Predict the structure of Alkylhydroperoxidase.
Amino acid sequence: MDARFNMFDNEIAMKFFKRFANAGLVIQQSPLPTSTQELVSLRASQINGCGWCIDMHTKEAAAGGESAVRLNLVAAWRESTVFTEAEQAALALAEEGTRLADAYEGVSDETWAQVRKHYDDDQIAALVSLVALINAANRLAVIVHQKGGSYQPGMFAAAFD
């Protein structure tokens, strides 16, 4: 199935994407580790079934030096030994923050306590913002059926300067 609508060829969409990318830049430049950012983005994208974002964040993470083993195990991080406690806390937050409708409390107190244990306030601000941003990106791509497979690492860097 082809994309329903080409967001990259639309003036309004591109104006929006530039601002969206600027919000992402705040997170990228934060003290939250880049590897954690990519793992969180990948996990939320898996939950939301966003092929475009899975493709993007898998490739960006690999280009940044992330191992194939860790990338392959993100979907089963609870059953894996390759993630730190801090990464596990971030992945739990990503899952619970993505599945808000599945639990009356949203993010559990237990998960929040683990996040507080491993991250400082600036990292938490970036992490919470990242979960919100990747969920928005997933929705944009899924709504228009933007398919994964064609992304190349860094392909949007110049377009959104």
About this structure: The mean pLDDT is 93. The chain has one domain: 8-143. The CA atoms of residues 35 and 61 lie 7 Å apart.
